[in-house]
Task: structure prediction
Amino acid sequence: MMTSHGRRDRLGASGPLAGRVAVVTGAARGLGQGLAYALSRHGARVALVGLEGERLARLASELPGAAAHWTVDVTDADGLAATAEAVRRTLGRPSVVVANAGVALGGPLLDCDTDAWRRVIEVNVVGSALTARCFLPDLLHTRGYYLQVASMAALAPAPLLTAYCASKAGVEAFAHALGAEVAHRGVGVGIAYLNWADTAMIREADKTAVFRELRTNLPWPASDIHDPASYVRAMLRGIERRSTHIYAPPWLRATQAARALLPAVVTHRSRQVLAARGNAPLPPTGLLGPGGAAADPARTGGPHGDPYRPEE
Result:
């Protein structure tokens, strides 16, 4: 399903993003929503892509600059390709594409629902790759910038988050490979490494035994939850500078140098924490938060939810 009601820019903004078209997936909530506001305030015409059509429509009407929204599942190749064409017609060729859509699932691997585990990989990895593929012709034309949202989980493994860690390590490798593939054609590729942010997904996660156990036993500062506005500012600066790597909070940069040691450190700490629990169960969470509910095939009626159809 697609809606594409564009509006004229009311800002008269100047700067590297003024007049540019920026696509944000997973834009209905959290960091995607915050980044859409920031891009719009800096003069970009913003294409909002996600599964929650009503929230996207409301956000498009609230942004200070020109905006339009499309309801589509990023794992639906045909729907996403049609969305890319519609963005091109409605707002123009994108100069910035942010692959932000993502879901998470917590729990021991043996206890996780197979379909939910697979869905995390499909949305986070396949969805990111399809986003890049569908919008890459535009980025090649504009010599634009693709930003892949990753996580601290790409740098350090975490027990009870096997699907999420695998997906974020996967998109990190994907972005590095894509960057090497398109650099000679003028397209920049960046990766945003982010720690816990105070979003609906993390607030819902903290209500579960799995995530409370996981996060509260992480060493400081990795256990801290941060204001998402600081992450949005970091991503906005990175987009303006076409940064290869974005770290928020900044201390995450130091984990790059130590990442070879981190699996052993995490395993040692996890052995202590999980052994202390004995046989106390840690039931899996299911796909987390409102965004996870929107992406859950069991609730949406299929892997892609409603079929893509234009509403113009």
Q: What stands out?
A: The CA atoms of residues 226 and 267 lie 25 Å apart. Residues 2-311 form a domain with the Rossmann fold fold (CATH 3.40.50.720). Residues 1-9, 301-312 have pLDDT under 50 and may be disordered.
